[in-house]
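Sample pair:
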Amino acid sequence: MEPVIKNLPEFCMVGVTTFGSGDSGLFPKSWEMFMKLEKNVEWKDGTRAFGIEFYTEEFHEEGKWFYMACKEVEDFSSIPVNMVAKRIPEHQYAVFTCKGLSELGKTFQFAYKEWLPKSDYFMADPFDFELYDERFKGAEDPESVIDIYIPVKKK
């Protein structure tokens, strides 16, 4: 399960955030809220959605982090008051692909616990994101494809 290394330019995201742990049940609720609000925004590409994880000290101390269900926008000129915006900087990414939401946790574990420590890279910024594009067929479909992007730099 070797990743592909890709470079991406800076991009702008708008969505809904929550703070918690992966087993809290809050992250799916972010998606529910996002889907109710997404009609209020003009998206750059409405077929792609992202789940961005932002890691702070609480991640290491309490196992909690910020999660943002979102999509990409051209700019921040019209953000609804009940949504938030985030500018993601230009980075090089290690991209891991998994099939089915049930494999997402295992793929993250492999990426961070096995691949990253043994690779020629280190994590460049305290965030990562999941890309849900036309290959994602729904949460219940085991054939759904999800990409995980981890910002990296050469050691």
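The helical segments are 26-37, 57-62, 104-118.
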